[in-house]
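[job 0412] stage=complex_fold ligand=magnesium ion status=START
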Amino acid sequence: MSDKEKPSENSAEPTTGEGALLKPRVLLVEDNPAVRNMILDFLGKRDYEIFEASNGLEGLQIATTEKPDVILADIIMPEMDGLELINRVREQPGTMLIPIIVMTAVNNLETKINVFKAGGDGLLIKPFDLQELQVRIERAIQVSRNFMKLTYVDSLTGVYNRRFFDDRLPTEVNRTRRYKQPLALVMFDIDHFKKFNDTYGHRAGDFVLSSLAQHVKKSLRTQDIVCRYGGEEFTVIMPMTRGEDAAMVMSRIRADLNDRFFYSPYDKQDFNIRISVGISRHPEDGMEADAVMRAADEALYEAKETGRNKVVLYNPASNIFKDRISKLKF
Ligand SMILES: [Mg+2]
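[job 0412] stage=complex_fold status=DONE, emitting C-alpha cells
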C-alpha cells in the first residue's frame, strides 16, 4: 500500500486510523456488465474503494466480509435477486445498518413498495443520471459515517472504543496477512490508576484518560488505530509495522510521559502519569487476532509484574504469565 503515509482526508473526524484505511467503500451489485462498467468507470474517478459483484449471492458474501459504507444493488439478478440481498443484509448484525441504494428499470408502484419494505434506503430508476447517483452515494456515506462515530468512538477520550477494536483487529490481521506484511499490537495502561482516582477523584481521572489518549494519538501515525479497551486500558493496532518498531515508538512515548505534565484547568493542577506497555507481533506471535491479543495481554502483564513504567515485547519463553495462571489455579 503506497498510500499508507497519506495524511487523514478528514482531519476534523475525532478518530484515528483514517485516510487510506477508511476511504469510503462502495459495493456495486449488478449482473449487467455494461451497466456495471459504466458505474465503475464513473465511481473510479472518485476517491472510493470499490467492490463489485455480479449477483446477490456474491454481493452478500462481499458485504459480510468487507462491510462497505454503502451498497448499490440491481433488483433482477441471477442466483439471488436484489430484494433477497436486502433481506439478508438486514438480517445480519454486522451488515444490518449499511445503507442500500437500489437501481432498477422496473418503474412501478409494486417495485417501489417492495424495495422500501425489504429495507432499501433509496431507489434509482434506470436510466438515471450519474450525478444523482453521486449525491445519493455521498449522502449514504455521511449517514454511515455518523453512525460509525456514534457506535465506534469512545465519548470520553475521542479515540475508538472496544467495539471498534473487536471488529477491526481480525480485519487488520487478515488484511496484513493477505499482503504478507507484519502487524504490531500494543496494549498499555496507566500505572496505579486506582490510586490516582482515590487521591484526586474521578474527574481528574477522566481528565488524564482523555489527555493521555489524545497525546498518544497525536504521537502516532494516521494509520495507527488507537482504542480505549476499557477503564484505563488502551490498545493500538499498528498495521504494516514490525513489533520492534512499535516498541521503539512506544518507548519514546513512555519516556516522554515521565517528564510531561497535563494541566487540568478544573483541578488547577498539573498531573503526571506513567504507563506500562505490552506489544505482540503478527505473524510471529499469532496468525489469528485472538492469539495476537493474548500475547499483547501477557506482555503487558509482564511489564506490570517486572516494575511498571516500561515497554515489554512479548516473549513466548517468559514464565511470568504461566506463574500467574498457576497462582490462579491455587
Ligand atoms: Mg439485472
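Residues 31-32, 74, 76-77 surround magnesium ion (CB under 6 Å).
[job 0412] exit 0
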